[in-house]
Specification:
The complex is a heteropentamer, with one copy of chain A, two copies of chain B and two copies of chain C. Chain A is mainly α. Chain A contains ten helices and no strands. Chain A has one domain. The relative contact order of chain A is 0.17. The mean pLDDT of chain A is 84. By secondary structure, chain B is mainly α. Chain B has one domain. The two termini of chain B are 31 Å apart. By secondary structure, chain C is an alpha/beta fold. Chain C contains six helices and nine strands, in the order βββαββαβαααβαββ. In chain C, helix 4 crosses helix 5 and helix 5 runs parallel beside helix 6. The termini of chain C are far apart. The chains are: A mainly alpha, B mainly alpha, C alpha/beta. At the B-D interface, helix 2, helix 3 and helix 7 of B face helix 2, helix 3 and helix 7 of D. Bound molecules: protoporphyrin IX containing FE, adenosine-5'-triphosphate (2 copies) and magnesium ion (2 copies). The site of protoporphyrin IX containing FE has 22 residues of chain A, from helix 3, helix 4 and helix 5.
């Protein structure tokens, strides 16, 4: 197996150029898909027989909640790669993940709360899923606080990588909290391979929205990565050349 | 060569100290947020550990809020004088020829602004989480504002007494918690009465009186304790 | 700011009489007495552990002595502590710096407790001690010698007539020692007094140079 | 002149470290008692702040015990590595040529013996105060023993990460409390189920599995964190 | 214990090649290279803040370098860390002592990590560095110089062929410096190697004496 392409991609100048080039290919399709899925979700899908129109927030809530978990896992894996193979680029990816991840978590919490008011009659309940999602937010915050506490970027990278890896243990608990405890919150309703537990007319817009969120996150990641590389490589020759 | 006798006014001194602490806080803004986050996290623990039912949580909400506020203020108090003593800056304060009690009071005030006040401000949010309705926010604000200030002064005395000892924060907890007991009792009582629609002026004015007393006498206790600690 | 002419009428007279101090089971200082006037540098010498630091801390009022007294311009220092402290500058084994503040901020906040100071004065003092480039760096990243220099920058701005310095040359390089000697000489010329603990002689040959050997 | 190649056995190394920590603890026995007293004091705060009625207290007893144990262990964890790092001893450990993860595990074990175990032993006393009957003591012992050990390891990881930072203990709370959340959930659940007469093997064996996992992986995380912290 | 005869066949060869190190915005070490064999003492000199401590910490493996390598007997030290650490004794700016333990206990617990030691060996080492009377005192009451001597007592018992010392004479009195020079000379005679940062020359005139000036 030839690893040259990998090392080449992992070098900052290539990664920077790659991320810049990739970004529009993620951003614009994501925007288009979001517009279509919103249209379909708001106007095409019939109102739910139980929830009327309130359920439509699902199109933001579910993608945001899924991504909040996914992004943490990605961050931890990237950090682990950085720690074990001493790869600076992987650390940069981890650093670029944290802010979008925290934002998705906040979004999931906020949309959930907004949805909870009509559904359960309360903004907030100390339900396992909700509580563990809140804990996920604290995990992101702890990660950010630790990162911010080091002056030296190399130390910040490695210390926060250790934390991210330790925190990874909590992700399955958050994901499966609905299964393990009886909970107010909806159980697993979407399923890629089996039959989904919701109306098929909702599934397509929801899946499209999910994909759109994913690509949107990819675009955010490209932005964050470029910013990280600029910060880390501010003294490097190739950057100075590019600026001139 | 003579000593510069144009002496500094107490207010410019206090301003200097506040400015320094704000500088330090800005340098480590994450640490300023920490008591606040601790407060919120501790409060989150209770529904997990006890029961998620709002009706039950509402009943124990004042108790939880006050215990959490007390613990947060206690933890924050440990860092009040320790850094300054350990790196020798406090020695310089003692030798500065300025009234030490005043300097320490200014430092404690800054500490409350940075750690106590945010906690008071965030109370509506967590109180909502515990099922307290919004009509009671003013009550929560006022009792917690007076209470956290009182906790800051008491915590500062404890911090000053234990700062000479390594790993002093546990010892401080032991010394300070009994002192703070009355704050807890009257504070939780005021809140509880308020939540049940009764008048709260009684316990509240008691709290305020305790605050005044501690503001007048506390700084001298702190100054004496600091002098002993750095000997 | 430090350009006042020599003022021999200025009072700076330290008198220590019969100081006794116990540490644990140890009778450390046994009746130390000395007198120091303006323009004089007293170097306290002696083996490790003989009690130099303890003596200096007694003089500064940080350690209560068993018996004996310490007079500043004829007044017992302990009784007029605020006034005495205004005339005193003490630098101990530790540098008294906040690791998270920059060198400049450290100076501003330490000196600001004694009198009004401006940033540019402090910047000048940092240049005087040879580390102008460190002004904006947090102290935690400075080297051992650079930290010592930040602490010593106080000397370059001090108006206090009595300096009490505990092994001030610790961690300093050769230029650093010369710089410190320059500061001391200026202070003495202005009529100030210095008590310093040191294992190496400072300002050898200076007329105000005196020695106190403990044992 | 050659390097003494007769290497020390892992057990004699662990014994050396335990012996050292016991020596230090004996020198400052007051500090060894502190987590314990903190635990007891926090638990006594609740009847004051919430309600003195035993029937109500009994219902929230598991929650209170666990929150108090968690906070006590968190506070104690801050002093786990900090002193050794600040005075440079940890540097010598890193350079000792011995497996650092093993040294740190031994130190954590000593820490649990000194701060976690007393807490477990005193539980019957405070549980009685909260109205729990004596037939449930074994349950409390076993859940708290496993739980506090787990809390010690997690706290140690947090301590190792923050030890290079000044005033890190708030930051540590912020980082470690979310990680400890599962311990709290399963621990309080096990206790609660036990108090209601249900079988507790489920959550208890989950706790034990988590402890094993953390004992195997935790020391490496600590070692990595310490190396970064002293850099 | 330290009576082995000189053993010239013993390997102790440190080789540093092209070490580069950044601190913050600062390119501190720019391609440092040197080779050191048994019997040699390398004194690292340079102004405050030039990077002596950083170099020493890189060599000891406490600070990862940007690039360059550090070979011990031909093997990269980073890759055989456990083995390299067994051959290394590092003393930094701080003394690495527990304030609450006695001097003797401190020695026993520090050295015990590397090999089996007895109390009487440690007591002897304390006598060697001139503070037998401090053995049973907690370190917190010792004077600055006494603390330094407790740390240096490790040298008197060390079997490690490579010593890395950061300003070892800090706080020492004149006899203390002589004592340290004696320890160094013995170590060199046994075929050991020393890297030391110092502002004052040590062992002037010794044949193995070499210098590295940073700037
Ligand atoms: C603050 C409140 C809420 C939070 C923190 C929250 C959090 C979450 C999380 C973490 C997921 C899992 C995503 C994944 O497995 O990838 C999720 C999915 C979901 N949530 Fe919520 N939620 C909240 C409120 C609600 C409400 C009120 C409803 C509707 C009654 C709701 C309906 C759903 C549905 C239908 C799913 C998809 C489940 C699946 O397919 O697995 N959520 N939510
Ligand atoms: N509790 C105690 N019991 C016994 N001896 C004590 C106690 N406290 C302090 N000492 C001794 O008092 C002395 C304190 O010395 P001090 O720090 O004043 O010395 P110094 O002259 O400044 O030394 P150095 O040159 O090393 O800085 C030491 O010898 C110490 O051993
Ligand atoms: N983050 C940073 N930004 C800028 N400069 C830094 C940073 N971290 C360290 N430095 C610089 O790196 C140098 C570290 O020097 P080091 O401690 O190795 O010096 P040294 O030669 O041992 O000096 P000394 O003789 O004073 O002990 C200092 O000049 C310091 O100012
Ligand atoms: Mg001394
Ligand atoms: Mg140095």
């Amino acid at each position: 197996m030839n690893w040259v392409w990998f090392h080449k991609l992992a070098s900052p100048p290539t990664a920077y150029a790659f991320a810049r080039a990739l970004r529009p290919w993620l951003f614009w399709p994501a925007a288009l898909m979001m517009i279509w899925a919103s249209y379909a979700g708001l106007f095409v899908v019939p109102p739910d027989y139980q929830q009327q129109d309130a359920f439509r927030i699902i199109f933001v809530h579910v993608p945001a909640a899924s991504l909040s978990l996914l992004v943490y896992s990605m961050m931890a894996i990237a950090a682990g790669i950085g720690l074990i193979w001493r790869m600076k680029l992987a650390h940069a990816v981890a650093a670029a993940c944290v802010l979008p991840g925290a934002v998705f978590t906040v979004l999931a919490l906020a949309t959930g709360a907004i949805w909870g008011k009509p559904m359960w009659g309360a903004w907030w309940a100390w339900d396992p899923r909700l509580t563990t999602e809140l804990i996920l937010l604290f995990m992101y915050l702890g990660y950010m606080a630790l990162r911010a506490s080091f002056d030296d970027i190399g130390r910040a990278d490695r210390a926060s990588a250790v934390l991210a890896l330790v925190g990874l243990v909590n992700i399955p608990i958050i994901k499966y909290s609905v299964v393990w405890w009886n909970s107010l919150h909806q159980g697993q309703t979407l399923s890629l391979f089996g039959k989904s537990a919701i109306d098929p007319s909702m599934v397509t817009p929801l899946l499209v929205m999910l994909l759109a969120f994913l690509m949107f996150f990819g675009a955010l990641l490209c932005d964050g990565l470029c910013a990280q590389i600029l910060r880390r490589e501010r003294n490097a020759q190739w950057l100075l050349k590019q600026v001139q | 060569m003579s000593v510069n006798s144009q002496s500094l006014s107490p207010f410019s001194l206090a301003a200097l100290i506040l400015r320094r602490d704000l500088h330090l806080a800005a340098r480590r803004w994450d640490q300023v947020l920490q008591p606040l986050v601790f407060f919120v996290v501790v409060i989150t623990l209770f529904p997990l550990a006890i029961s998620p039912e709002l009706s039950e949580l509402r009943r124990i909400a004042p108790g939880i809020l006050w215990v959490a506020a007390m613990l947060a203020s206690l933890l924050a108090a440990d860092a009040l004088f320790r850094p300054d003593v350990e790196d020798g800056v406090m020695e310089q304060w003692v030798l500065s020829g300025q009234p030490l009690a005043w300097l320490l009071l200014a430092k404690t005030a800054g500490h409350w602004l940075l750690t106590g006040l945010p906690l008071v401000l965030v109370t509506p949010l967590v109180a909502t989480g515990l099922g307290v309705s919004s009509e009671h926010w003013l009550l929560m604000f006022s009792t917690l504002a007076v209470g956290t200030a009182l906790l800051s002064v008491l915590g500062a005395i404890g911090a000053a007494l234990t700062v000479g000892l390594r790993r002093g924060n546990m010892l401080m907890a032991l010394m300070v918690l009994p002192l703070e007991m009355p704050v807890l009792i009257f504070g939780a009582r005021a809140m509880d009465m308020g939540l049940h629609g009764e008048a709260v002026t009684g316990p509240l004015s008691l709290l305020a009186a305790m605050l005044l007393l501690s503001l007048v006498l506390g700084p001298f206790a702190m100054a004496a304790a600091i002098r002993i600690s750095i000997e | 700011m430090l350009t006042d002419p020599v003022n021999p009428s200025m009072q700076s007279r330290l008198e220590v009489r019969g100081l006794h101090l116990w540490r644990g089971e140890h009778h450390l200082l046994r009746g130390i007495s000395f007198t120091l006037s303006g323009g004089e540098l007293l170097q306290v010498k002696g083996q490790n552990g003989v009690g130099k630091t303890s003596l200096l801390r007694c003089v500064a009022g940080l350690l209560p002595a068993e018996s004996g007294e310490c007079l500043w311009n004829g007044v017992e220092a302990r009784l007029a502590a605020a006034q005495f402290n205004q005339s005193l500058l003490y630098l101990g084994h530790s540098n008294a710096l906040k690791q998270d503040l920059t060198a400049l901020e450290n100076l501003v906040f330490t000196l600001g407790l004694k009198r009004t100071v401006s940033d540019s004065d402090c910047q000048q003092a940092l240049s005087r001690v040879g580390i102008p480039q460190c002004a904006e760096l947090p102290v935690r990243v400075l080297s051992a010698g650079q930290r010592r220099r930040v602490a010593l920058a106080q000397l370059a701005m001090s108006e206090a007539p009595l300096w009490v310095l505990d092994e001030p040359i610790t961690n300093l390089d050769v230029q650093g020692i010369t710089m410190l000697e320059g500061l001391l000489a200026e202070h003495l010329a202005r009529g100030g007094a210095v008590v310093s603990a040191a294992h190496q002689p400072l300002l050898a040959g200076h007329p105000g140079n005196r020695e106190l050997v403990l044992n």
